[in-house]
Each structure stands twice: as structure tokens, then as C-alpha cells.
């Protein structure tokens, strides 16, 4: 996701559209709405990981927001909750939606969802200059608008269904044969749409023509179904004489364009669902309170490739590393944080340990240290995993999002600064290897904000890669404002006395 906004959600009446930069930081006083907003990401992730009966899984493995009524804006209960986001459709999933020959930044679609308790009441999809609107009822009926035209599929009996692991619902047509048997079709009657298009082009003689029996009305994966202009260009190549003087403003072409888009609705939705699902699958969340470190952990013979949100499985991740991998991790933790984190093995158990240097024989069980190391370790391991993945340069751009609540928990300011240094380091590595990495975190740490500014001032990080979101309250509603660093590392428009103690006396 490149941008996201939410309306009528908890204390947030309207967040406005928020751009997600490689480093997106949320600051504000307690109960200003930071946690509510940042938990949108694990909320979507847990929704897609389960088969659910409601529109959103408000209570799951990552976050607990109660139910729909508790999640609605407290000061605006009469209005629907609306989630919207702009998502980059990945190259391997472009297909019909975008074709093959456009620049990367153009592969964007905007999705807006009106959320009801049990279903999505309205979904709006915009890509290039094309718009699709889906209206749905709790009874399962649906209505489709293509570029504000509701006549394209108005004669079909339409319904909707939503599969598990998919955020957006698909549309189906219900047909009844002569015996009264009902059948559901997700592919609309392309042959009928083709006939309507031919009639628009050829008039009364349309039945005699065969030239318009084209792939645009059928599911050919490489057809560049993008802007109206691109569709018109393809039509001109196929039947130039009939479209020679046609522009994208002509009513006849607009109708044809809408018919073509209508036949592809479920293909477009499928491609968006794949991109959303992949984006959430590649999103990792770290809870504000991480698991306390035990003295010993039972060895489990299971393969682990993702860190739990509270770091519970962290010992097994380190235990399952090959010796050379663990050696690299130890050296990396020493380089980045000044101490060596590792694991030792006993009979049937392992322990998390910390030491000052790689070859030190004197080790300390992390259970015997303060809370700082236990709360820091899950983030350290997650950053290490990012660092290792960043080495695998991808031919296609891939996405990864890390969402962290209070990374500074129980940490000395010096460690907080080191954490920012590592954030910046893994982001730079990702950019070099075509990995679209976003680290989104919520903090109360002045040291972390100042460190970002110092790295920008020292030319070790680009100010364009940072977005500071300030959360505040006005009349009981959350207000979100975006602040940017300039090239000298100074925050523009930073509220005076934001961290001052006197302000809250």
C-alpha cells in the first residue's frame, strides 16, 4: 500500500489520505489515536488469514478491537466506516488490468470500502481514468456501475460473494434454465456484450460483421486494459475505419469502453485481491508489549519463517539457524547494537543469552537482565531477517511492511538511536535491491525523532523517505497532520513544545 485513509473509526472521524513512506513515524499524546491507526495493518492481516462471518475480524491473533460497534467512531455513530487505500499492483499480477508496457509508478489502483457490520455495503475501484462501483445488500444482491453507468449489467440478476483470504467481494450472475435450475456464473455473457458493441459500431448491419469478434471482450491475459485512450488505440488498430475520428469523449466509444470493463470486473477484482493478500502476507506486526524472556525454552522441531507478533517463537528462530547463520547474526548484533545476542542449547531446551563480545566465555541469560533486552530482541531479530532478505535482489519489485508499536520500550536513549540507525540501514539496503520496504512505527521517543533528523543532516538518509504523522485531538476527534524534514534535518511545522513537560501540567 502506498497511501491509506480511514473514516469514522474509533476516535478518527477522518484521517485524510496518509502517504506511507519507507519510514513512517506516528507521534502524539496518549489516546490521540496513534494505536488505533497503526493497528489497521494487523487488523487487515488477521482478517485475511481466517474464514470469517463478519466484514472484518475485529478480534484475532494480532489485535482486539472488540466488535464493529466498538470500532465505529465514538462521536459519529450515524455514519459508515470507510477504508480507502492506494495499492501498487505487482508486475506478475498485472495481466488484463494494466497490460505490459507502462512505467512502474502507473501500476496503481485506488480502493474505497464502505464497511458494514456483516458485509461491505459499497466498494469503489479506480484505476487510471476507469471507475467501478459495487453496491451490495445484506441479502446478497449486487448492482454494478462502470464509469457511473449503471445500465451495462442492469438486465442481469447479480449477487456477490466473498471468499476467505480475499478482501474484496466478487460479483456473480444468477441464471435460471428452462427447468428452473439456478446456476451462478462469475463470467458475464461476453457474447451478448460483444453483440451490443458490434451493434454500436455497425448499426443495423452488425450481424453481418465479424471483424469486431475481438479479444477485448474475452479473457485474453495480455490485453492492456488500462486508460480509455489505450482501449481506443487498440480498437483503432483492429478496425480503424470505424474509429478513425473517434475520441474518448464520444458517447459510442464510452459505451463500448464500459461494456469491455464490465466483462473484466471479476478479473480486475481477482488481481487486486492477489495484490492486497500478498501485501498483508508480507506485513509483520510487533506488539507494544513483547513476551517476557523465560530462563529455558523447550525445543520444538518445527520450521519457523515468521516472527510472532509478541516474539514468543524468537528462541526457536535462533535455534533453527544454521551455525554459519547464527555466527552472522551474532556479528551483526554486535556491530549494530554493541552487544551479542545468541542462544545456547542444553538437554532438551535452549536459552537466550547476551554477551559483550563474540568470543567471550562469560554469558548472561537474558532472563537475568532488565526488561530492555527482552523488549528489544524481537525487533532486533526481525531487522536481522530483513537484512538477510535484502541481499536477495529481486527481478521484480517486492513489498515488505513492518509495523511496530513503541520500539523504544524500556530502552536507553542510546539504544533508541541505534534502533533508528538500523531502520535506516535496512531501508537503504532494500532500496538498492528493489525491495519496497516500509517501516511504520508509533513512538513517544524524542531521541528517535531527533536521530532521524541528524541522519538526514549528515546525508546518511534522504528526507524524502520519511513521513512524521502528528496525532492530536480536537473536540474529541483525532486530527492527523503530516510533517516533513528538510534537507538539513529540521522538521518543518513541528508543534512548539510538543515534548515539553510544562504543556501537560
Write the layout of secondary structure elements.
Blueprint: E1 3-9, E2 12-14, E3 18-19, E4 23-28, H1 34-38, H2 40-48, H3 68-71, E5 81-88, H4 95-98, E6 108-115, E7 120-127, E8 130-136, E9 142-146, E10 158-161, E11 170-176, E12 182-185, H5 190-202, H6 228-238, H7 240-243, H8 251-263, H9 265-281, E13 283-286, E14 297-298, H10 314-319, H11 323-337, E15 340-345, E16 349-355, E17 364-365, H12 371-390, E18 398-405, H13 413-432, E19 435-442, H14 446-457, E20 466-474, E21 477-485, E22 491-492
Parallel strand pairs: 4-19, 4-20, 13-18, 18-19
Antiparallel strand pairs: 1-2, 1-3, 1-5, 5-6, 6-7, 7-8, 8-9, 10-11, 11-12, 14-16, 15-16, 16-17, 20-21, 21-22
Helix pairs in contact: 5-8, 12-13, 13-14
Structural class: alpha+beta
Low-confidence stretches: 92-106, 218-223
Number of domains: 3
User: Quick one: biggest sheet?
Assistant: 8 strands, antiparallel
Tertiary shape: elongated
- Give the integer mean of the pLDDT values: 85
Distance between the termini: 40 Å
Would you count the extended β strands for me? 22
Kindly estimate the percentage of residues that lie in beta strands according to DSSP: 15-25%
| Oligomerization | single chain
Question: Any key phrases for this structure?
Answer:
22 strands, 3 domains, 505 residues, 30% helix, 14 helices, Rossmann fold, alpha+beta, eight-stranded antiparallel sheet, 25% strand, elongated, seven-stranded mixed sheet
Notes on the structure:
The chain has 505 residues and is α+β, with helices and mostly antiparallel strands. It folds into three domains: 121 residues, no CATH class; 193 residues, no CATH class; 157 residues, Rossmann fold (3-Layer(aba) Sandwich). Helix content is 30%, strand content 25%. The strands form four sheets. Strands 1, 2, 3, 5, 6, 7, 8 and 9 form an eight-stranded antiparallel sheet that branches. A hairpin with a 2-residue loop joins strand 20 and strand 21. Helix 5 runs antiparallel to helix 8, helix 12 packs parallel to helix 13 and helix 13 crosses helix 14. The longest helix has 20 residues. The two termini are 40 Å apart.
Amino acid at each position: 500500500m502506498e497511501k491509506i485513509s480511514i473514516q469514522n473509526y474509533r476516535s478518527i472521524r477522518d484521517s485524510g489520505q496518509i502517504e506511507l513512506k519507507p519510514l513512517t513515524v506516528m507521534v502524539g499524546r496518549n489516546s490521540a489515536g496513534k494505536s488505533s491507526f497503526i493497528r489497521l495493518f494487523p487488523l487487515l492481516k488477521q482478517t485475511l488469514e481466517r474464514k470469517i462471518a463478519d466484514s472484518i475480524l475485529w478480534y484475532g491473533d494480532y489485535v482486539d478491537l472488540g466488535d464493529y460497534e466498538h470500532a465505529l467512531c465514538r462521536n459519529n455513530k450515524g455514519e459508515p466506516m470507510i477504508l480507502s487505500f492506494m495499492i501498487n499492483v505487482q508486475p506478475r499480477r498485472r495481466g488484463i488490468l494494466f497490460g505490459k508496457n507502462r512505467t512502474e509508478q502507473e501500476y496503481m489502483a485506488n480502493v474505497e470500502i464502505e464497511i458494514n457490520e456483516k458485509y461491505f455495503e459499497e466498494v469503489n475501484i479506480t484505476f487510471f481514468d476507469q471507475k467501478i462501483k459495487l453496491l451490495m445488500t445484506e441479502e446478497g444482491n449486487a448492482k454494478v456501475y462502470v464509469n457511473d453507468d449503471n445500465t451495462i449489467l442492469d438486465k442481469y440478476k447479480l449477487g456477490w460473494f466473498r471468499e476467505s483470504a480475499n478482501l474484496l467481494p466478487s460479483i456473480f450472475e444468477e441464471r435460471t434454465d428452462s427447468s428452473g435450475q439456478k446456476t451462478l456464473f462469475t463470467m458475464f455473457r461476453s457474447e451478448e456484450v460483444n453483440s451490443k458493441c458490434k451493434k454500436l459500431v455497425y448499426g443495423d448491419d452488425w450481424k453481418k460483421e465479424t471483424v469486431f469478434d475481438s479479444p477485448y471482450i474475452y479473457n485474453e491475459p495480455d490485453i492492456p486494459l488500462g486508460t480509455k485512450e489505450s482501449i481506443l488505440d487498440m480498437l483503432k488498430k483492429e478496425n480503424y475505419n470505424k474509429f478513425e475520428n473517434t475520441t474518448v469523449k464520444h458517447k459510442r466509444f464510452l459505451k463500448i469502453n464500459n461494456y469491455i470493463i464490465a466483462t473484466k470486473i471479476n478479473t480486475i477484482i481477482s488481481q487486486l485481491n492477489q495484490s492486497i493478500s500478498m501485501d498483508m502476507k508480507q506485513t509483520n506486526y510487533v506488539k507494544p508489549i513483547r513476551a517476557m524472556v523465560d530462563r529455558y525454552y523447550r525445543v520444538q522441531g518445527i520450521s519457523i519463517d515468521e516472527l510472532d507478533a509478541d516474539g514468543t517463537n524468537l528462541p526457536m528462530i535462533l535455534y533453527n539457524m544454521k551455525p554459519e547463520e547464527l555466527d552472522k547474526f551474532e556479528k551483526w548484533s554486535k556491530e549494530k547494537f554493541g552487544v551479542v545476542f545468541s542462544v545456547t542449547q542444553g538437554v532438551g531446551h535452549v536459552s537466550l543469552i547476551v554477551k559483550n563480545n563474540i568470543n567471550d566465555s562469560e554469558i548472561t541469560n537474558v532472563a537475568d537482565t532488565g526488561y530492555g533486552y527482552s523488549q528489544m530482541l524481537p525487533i532486533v531479530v526481525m531487522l536481522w531477517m530483513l537484512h538477510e532478505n535484502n541481499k536477495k535482489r529481486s527481478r521484480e519489485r517486492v513489498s515488505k511492511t513492518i509495523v511496530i508499536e513503541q520500539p523504544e520500550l524500556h530502552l536507553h536513549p542510546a539504544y533508541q538511536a541505534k534502533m533508528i540507525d538500523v531502520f535506516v540501514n535496512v531501508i537503504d539496503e532494500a532500496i538498492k535491491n528493489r525491495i519496497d520496504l516500509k517501516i511504520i512505527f508509533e513512538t513517544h521517543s524524542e531521541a528517535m525523532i531527533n536521530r532521524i533528523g541528524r541522519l538526514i543532516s549528515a546525508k546518511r538518509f534522504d528526507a524524502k523517505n520519511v513521513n512524521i504523522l502528528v496525532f492530536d485531538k480536537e473536540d474529541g476527534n483525532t486530527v492527523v497532520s503530516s510533517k516533513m524534514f528538510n534537507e538539513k534535518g529540521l522538521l518543518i511545522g513541528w508543534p512548539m513544545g510538543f515534548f515539553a513537560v510544562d504543556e501537560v501540567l
